């Protein structure tokens, strides 16, 4: 029997409050007038990966804890409106939240509320096994309590990916994710030696592919021991916000991988989707569709873009 779910997304559901600021870092002042408004919208890393996967036509299911609160309602509405299956486990501490300060150049500073979770939270193993068993692949966010789910996922024999985000290569919290996944994404922003970190992940863990995204400098792909530079793709519109670019990259990469494409082609899909995400305002939630992704990737290969 073929799996009912293409990708199970684990964790990373929440709400961001977006504040456009005149510059980053923001100088101290008693107050600032925010003419563009201060807006809350559903969408943290797991939500954006799920959104990107669904926009590309993959059957997507999202599992995480949500509170019985207005923030949780926003997350549920996002999934309902986009047709993304959601299993929401009750979280008495409330739905995860963050405040994103976004500068004029699209850079952001995120402030995460770590109080909306409990140290003893665990995904019910029966639920986790059932969903993993029905899935072709699982993308694991690094939010708590996803690390404790990794042994169950490995026992289920399902493919695993994860995004370490701005890992510095030293924080031990990220290692469980880095060494358990078959596909590892990481931002190069905080790495002093991206290649060394990528090779360490591959040597110590199970990763078949490691990708380090580098913003406007493109990305670096480690596959079969070979490091390759993947050029950045010109965005289809002005860059307004980098929020969600890494999640979009991961979604498109996984689309390519599950379609049987080689790693280099998958990374090119990721570059196209990441560039598209940079044109979407932080207050919005949008992702590139399959037809546009394939067309823009073909254009990039032919030198049209």
Automatic annotation (TrEMBL):
<keyword id="KW-0418">Kinase</keyword>
<protein>
    <submittedName>
        <fullName>Adenosine kinase</fullName>
    </submittedName>
</protein>
<dbReference type="Pfam" id="PF00294">
    <property type="entry name" value="PfkB"/>
</dbReference>
<dbReference type="InterPro" id="IPR011611">
    <property type="entry name" value="PfkB_dom"/>
</dbReference>
<dbReference type="InterPro" id="IPR029056">
    <property type="entry name" value="Ribokinase-like"/>
</dbReference>
<dbReference type="GO" id="GO:0016301">
    <property type="term" value="F:kinase activity"/>
</dbReference>
<keyword id="KW-0808">Transferase</keyword>
<dbReference type="InterPro" id="IPR002173">
    <property type="entry name" value="Carboh/pur_kinase_PfkB_CS"/>
</dbReference>
<feature type="domain" description="Carbohydrate kinase PfkB">
    <location>
        <begin position="49"/>
        <end position="285"/>
    </location>
</feature>
């Amino acid at each position: 029997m073929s799996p009912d779910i293409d990708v199970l997304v684990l964790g990373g559901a929440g709400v961001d409050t977006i504040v456009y600021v005149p510059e980053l870092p923001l100088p101290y002042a008693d107050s600032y007038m925010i003419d563009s408004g201060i807006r809350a919208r559903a969408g943290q890393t797991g939500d954006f990966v799920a959104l990107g996967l669904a926009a590309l036509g993959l059957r997507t299911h999202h599992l995480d804890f949500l509170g019985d609160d207005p923030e949780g309602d926003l997350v549920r509405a996002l999934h309902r409106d986009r047709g993304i299956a959601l299993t929401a486990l009750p979280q008495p501490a409330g739905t995860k939240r963050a405040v994103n300060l976004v500068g004029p150049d699209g850079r952001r500073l995120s402030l995460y509320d770590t109080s909306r979770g409990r140290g003893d939270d665990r995904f019910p193993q029966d639920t986790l096994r059932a969903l993993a068993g029905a899935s072709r692949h699982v993308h694991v966010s690094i939010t708590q309590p996803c690390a404790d789910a990794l042994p169950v996922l490995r026992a289920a024999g399902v493919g695993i990916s994860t995004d370490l985000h701005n890992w510095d290569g030293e924080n031990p919290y990220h290692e469980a994710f880095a060494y358990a996944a078959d596909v590892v994404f990481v931002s190069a922003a905080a790495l002093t030696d991206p290649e060394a970190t990528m090779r360490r992940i591959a040597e110590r863990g199970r990763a078949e592919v490691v990708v380090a995204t580098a913003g406007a400098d493109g990305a670096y792909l480690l596959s079969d021991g070979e490091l390759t530079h993947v050029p950045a793709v010109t965005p289809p519109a002005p860059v307004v916000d980098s929020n969600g670019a890494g999640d979009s990259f991961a979604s498109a990469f996984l689309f390519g991988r599950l379609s049987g494409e080689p790693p280099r082609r998958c990374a090119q899909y990721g570059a196209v989707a990441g560039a598209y995400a940079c044109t979407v305002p932080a207050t919005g939630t949008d992702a590139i569709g399959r037809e546009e992704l394939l067309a823009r990737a073909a254009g990039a290969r032919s030198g049209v873009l």
